[in-house]
Amino acid sequence: MSQPGVGAVTALAFVLTMGDVHRFPRGKQVASYLGLVPREHSSGGKQRMGGISKQGNRLLRFLLVEAANIAVRFDPEIAKRISAPLPPETLHRRQSGDGS
Description:
alpha+beta, two-stranded antiparallel sheet, single chain
């Protein structure tokens, strides 16, 4: 099984950096470990998201971001999902800023 955009170098870097992935119960924790989740500055119920946190292995983060860019450019199915319009309820939630 292969993922679009992920080659031998990226796969090897992932395996060597992560070690046993079963130590992470969820994929979100893997992304956080690698620094791929945004910084969050929240106070008084107001949620402000920043750029990616840049924690973890710099090379692996670079390889995964590049793999994602290549997958979007060359896999028509992924490109279609990325460019699909957001559902109206998601747009309303983002515009209102209530975060719920």
